[in-house]
Amino acid sequence: MRNRRLQLGQNEMSDLSVVDEADAVDKAAKWADSLLGRIHQGAGDTIDAAMYRAELAYGIPWQTFWALRYRKPKIMAVAAWLRIKMTYDAMCASQEAKLRHELEIARQLPPTPARLDLIREVEALLGPGERQDAPPPTPIRRVG
To answer: Are 143 and 6 in contact (CB under 8 A)?
Structure first.
């Protein structure tokens, strides 16, 4: 496997201010579980198979997923933690962009009371300070 390095922006570096190692591992375990949930194909699929597919999809070793799911380490490498966080953030940004797209489609349809309620609910979920023309999130870049 080739050596991979990440280029980190200023906001990613500020995320390193996590003080408690146990909290950092717990956060990474939740993020990893969410990432596996996106890959897992439901009944008939195994978590182990999903871990291998997640390794291919996200570039995070399956052993990291396994350890965070079954035997959490007391501490973890910063590089692994950052890779999981950046991948999780990218997945969330992608889902938010899809939700924004669906919201724009819903706004163009004829208004009904149920549709207007749904639009208000989605706008509240996305937050009041969000711009409609926000640029897409920066993708994860691999160097090396």
So the answer is: yes
